[in-house]
């Protein structure tokens, strides 16, 4: 009888390359780089997981409002990766979005956040990446329309919107708050998704205190998802989440309010679930300090839409989400007070109803509890009505959803499949 | 051309309840495990989401979740000398296929067997004297006390809701006073009862009986099992039997084990892989692996250190016969064990129709019910009755679906305007009292290979020679009388008796509780497997499931199937892996 402990054997294999390749004296730096690369979630964007691409070898298509950008190979392959980059080359890319040849990188690469990182942290990531297996994989051509094909355009963009260098000092803040701010605004680059973009694709995050202050971490739309507002202070959409709730969501993919679904599920699996609990609580401390923005007054929905919506809700939704929108803790999302339900932009709500959604499984919550798709079952008007009902019931307050909004998203999703 | 695959430590043939439990236990012990499932992958959001799980046409009428009859069915005859004919459409029972097996479309009723059920021959002979010569019942080689921790484990896996009647010997009010001692309470409270159960309880108590809630694997509340898998509160939609649950509310391999098992690096599942036979070493004493065929018709040999047959009992028997392992049973001589002691269950009952009161039977669940156990097993004195054993009597509310269910009182025409009017009048006003009768093994009831009919791969299909016995009919008649007395006390305007007569008819649905054929016993002279479900002939071959039951008790079998699997796994991990070979000396 062959008996072996495969779990242990696998763990040993996984750990082997880093230990073997890295100089012992560099181990501390490499390990710190590994952790920062995890916080930055390099692997999610720089891996074409959908097509079985090697880790960090790039090729993932990123849909931007302006076209498709393919992520580059950041393994240390000499020809197709960053094998010939020096530490200084890597620093300039992270600090200013500059390639070694002087060309400007597109801000889909979140250098407007990475610029907050000190040199030693960037060097640590470089050291870590240098220890990983290399992979030869050329980058596909981006599909961007003129004038964005001209990288010089980005130079102009930088002049307008980019602010280089570390975050301002905040001497009256706690260490946890400072650490949380650094993780969120620096390597974690939360605002890349969770802040609104202006017309030029610049995140308002980088315009802090200038153009759209209220847009900072108040939700953003990309790839036909709304990443909801994550401000947890007074008036914020996460104001009823405790710091513990936020840490649980990031660490385990679920909490008593909600589950991490598609995109955030990926972030939880690849990044936040691998972060220390102290760091997750630091993030929570920072988010809990951000007050909510001023909100537009919500107009009451048409009674006919509410009535139709309630009937659809009772038939199609209440079995899981409850007649009172209370959900089932850790399983079925709580709609009462939900940040997604109360967001001004209903994109994610509509999309979940049309396509269904799957909670990301984690060690703590292995069951990938899912909601089925309703696109074949409910018309645009029915989806609009039921969501209008959800957005204006049980204390929720957000604008009605129009059938046209549902139809538009349905078309976009059909086109992108 | 047969492709030889890399070897594994253990291969599961079939991936329902028993395959999933065994794979979970063996992977925890560090083994490399592969499961082969002839059907497809199935999971809740893809295959039975709430948006279409309650599609009666698809699942009930068109049998989507069941084994396709045109690929392999079973032939039936009532007795020797008759020509068995194939069941071209399942009726009496509904074997599943695909990941999760029949455990996807079960009701979720989760009883333990009585301590005396494990000593059927000795207990009854001690109390009543010799049994009829043709009654081939025998004692189980495992006791209730030995299985108790494993029952407990399966019930916690499944989140069973109920009221314990006997915890460590202390009889508790509201539970089953006849049950064997439990080491712990049920993990969940019982389900919410409806009008029909309240009436049943009052009527039963009025007769001095001991009603208690049906133990249910439909969740009475949100539950996280010991593996961390989550189940949601049942919505009482009434689509359990014949359906997968869209709400994560019914225990199944999908909801209780697979989220954890499928993540393990030392587990793999291969679907659309139908096992043709178990292969053996030249001397026949050792299984070398299994040969299977994939959906493209390609054959593969999968070497394995251990082989587990985890298919439905009928298919496990057929695989043994097709592999030529063990001696087929001959009823004339009594020689041979394979196919012997095939048992079923004897179902009957009563319908209660109300005048003005609404039962609202569409608010239901597969295991939503009240039950009495006073006439089950040896819970009552059988002196002078001419039979042993019995069955439970229950009132469950489920299955009231528009295509399947159109209750009408006796004497109503079967079609036309009067039929329609009666359905309309009675649809919301009817409930049933069911008798779930045990099935005692009989010399003439057996399974073997059919001499004529073949499956889609050209292999003989299974032949069932089965009829109700004098024991079955006497028991059923007696317990149905008792059920009628309860039904008559439930305040309806009419009560119909649904009796069970011979010959056994494969058309009307009765129950998917087929047992025996690969039974467990004390020696190779009385059984196919030993007390650890290990083949007497081939010591690295194990047979899971209800095929091991020497005879069938008056309860749903799943709890006992789960407990036996955990029991077997426990001893394989603790003993066999250290010292492979026969675990019981013949």
TrEMBL record, chain A:
GO terms for molecular function: electron transfer activity; heme binding; iron ion binding; oxidoreductase activity, acting on CH-OH group of donors. It comes from the Bacteria. Its cofactor is heme c. Heme c 1 binds at residues 42, 45-46. Keywords: Cell membrane, Electron transport, Heme, Iron, Membrane, Metal-binding, Repeat, Respiratory chain, Signal, Transport. Binds 3 heme c groups covalently per subunit. Heme c 2 binds at residues 190, 193-194. InterPro entries: Cyt_c-like_dom, Cyt_c-like_dom_sf, Cyt_C_IC, Cytochrome_c-type_DH, Membr-bd_ADH_cyt_c. Residues 1-22 form the signal peptide. This is Cytochrome c, mono-and diheme variants. It comes from Albimonas donghaensis.
UniProtKB/TrEMBL annotation, chain B:
Coiled coil: none annotated. Residues 444-564 form the Glucose-methanol-choline oxidoreductase C-terminal domain. Gene3D superfamilies: FAD/NAD(P)-binding domain (3.50.50.60). GO terms for molecular function: flavin adenine dinucleotide binding; oxidoreductase activity, acting on CH-OH group of donors. Keywords: FAD, Flavoprotein, Oxidoreductase. Residues 232-342 form the Glucose-methanol-choline oxidoreductase N-terminal domain. InterPro entries: FAD/NAD-bd_sf, GMC_OxRdtase_N, GMC_OxRtase_C. It comes from the Bacteria. Belongs to the GMC oxidoreductase family. This is Gluconate 2-dehydrogenase alpha chain.
